[in-house]
Amino acid sequence: MINPSVKVRFAPSPTGELHIGGARTALFNWLFAQKNKGQFYLRIEDTDPERSQEKYTEQILESLSWLGLHWDKPLLYQSQRLDVYKERVKDLTTSGHVYQCFCSKDDLQTARNEGHYQYPGTCRNLSEADIKQKLNQGIGFTLRLRIPEGEIRYKDQIYGDISVDHKELDDFIIVRSDGSPTYNFVVVIDDHDMGITHVIRGEDHVSNTPKQIQIYKALGYDEPIFAHLPMILGPDKKRLSKRHGAPGVQKFKNDGYFSGSLLNYLALLGWNPGTEEEIFSINELADAFDLKQVQKKGAVWDEKKLHWLSGQYVMATSTDDLLNAIRDNEPDWGKGSEISLLISIVELLKVRAKSLIEFVNQSEYFFNDPVAYDEKGLKKAWKDGSVNTLISNFVESLMTLPAWRKEELESTFRSYVSEKELGLGKIIMPVRLAVCGTLNGPSIFDIMELVGKETCIRRLGTALERLPK
């Protein structure tokens, strides 16, 4: 059932660029809001002055805009709400829900050494006289939330009923000794003030949720509905990280991936539409998305699957749109060439290229002679001087061709190998190496037609002079 009152948020910290896990969290929040015709807000959690940087904020905003995950105004910055947090601290102090803790780091370490893995409540019941004496001595303090006896129970939209005994929670710090508020404290205040109805985030926050519920109760706020998303895992089944070579969203943009293909793939990391369908537009994803279909098990990052999906998007895109996108991404691509040639190149490569940068990389030989030859290709296609004799004779056949079209080229290749009683690969491979510098690529007959007779003959002549090595 559609619920227009839904309000969700994505709350990144600007300590680095937007990574894959963050992008998926933003996507699931956005899809949930779209499905319910609700609101999707963005909050920048920039209260850590040492690690937060404006350049990362800008990069996060650019990446979200590129993905098409547009947010409802206003954009909220935690750093601009410090006075609000101070007021709420006063409220909790007045109500007796927080108390001053004068324990030093050494005191806490001593307690841990004695087997107290949680804060032992040393300062929980200090008398007014004790507090006054410590303040007069100039001893610094933190503020801790007073956890009552009992149990926290809540229903996670993905993991079901969760209960946590209060004994598992120590009286945790909500304000540090330098006066700065902690994450669990400010996130509750922000979510309440923004009217957030559903908190959809990674399962690494499951341990934070009972603490935050305690703060909601202490402040007298209604709690939102929680949904914790499964982790994205690397091939080793550990949480996906930089060590797995997982790039940030900006890298995919720079490499010329279509944002739709990345969104499509991210949606399938943890969400199952309940059908065999795998290709979705962003609007189709919004229509189909359901939190109940999000799986509990971590999803493994599969770059091959992403490349396949991206290839489907490339093939479904018109040649004109691809050409415009390539030139937007690489303005100098094909500069000086006829537009008809560029269209033919795009048509030829669109069944092979998975991104705009692959179009550029795979089309180099259409515009420039090879400066080097692939080493593996050399070993396979141009082993010794006998290839020179074969190619030299074949060049003579090519030079007499009246029409330089792929059909005539293929016929010439086949006639030559038939005459020499050779397999077709014996001539195609060295010719491809000479013309392209590599053995990879589309049909050599298509390539040679587009490259042109004069250029092909010249490149074959160059190879005859330089090879074998």
- Uncertain segments are none
Which strand-content bin applies to the residues?
Answer: 5-15%
Write down the overall mean pLDDT: 95
Structural class computed from helices and strand pairing: mainly alpha
Distance between the termini: 70 Å
* Total number of strands: 12
The count of helical stretches stands at 21
What's the helical proportion of residues?
40-55%
> Order of strands across the biggest sheet?
1-2-3
Which sheet architecture does the biggest sheet show? Answer: 3 strands, parallel
Label the overall shape: elongated
Q: Gyration radius, to the nearest Å?
A: 32 Å
Topology:
Layout: E1 7-10, H1 20-36, E2 39-44, H2 54-67, E3 72-77, H3 82-94, E4 98-101, H4 105-113, H5 128-136, E5 142-145, E6 151-156, E7 160-165, E8 173-175, H6 183-193, E9 198-202, H7 209-219, E10 225-229, E11 232-233, H8 249-254, H9 259-267, H10 282-288, E12 299-300, H11 303-316, H12 319-329, H13 339-349, H14 356-362, H15 364-367, H16 375-381, H17 386-399, H18 406-420, H19 425-436, H20 444-451, H21 453-466
Parallel strand pairs: 1-2, 2-3, 9-10, 11-12
Antiparallel strand pairs: 4-5, 5-8, 6-7
Helix pairs in contact: 1-10, 6-7, 9-11, 12-13, 12-14, 16-19, 17-21, 18-20, 19-21
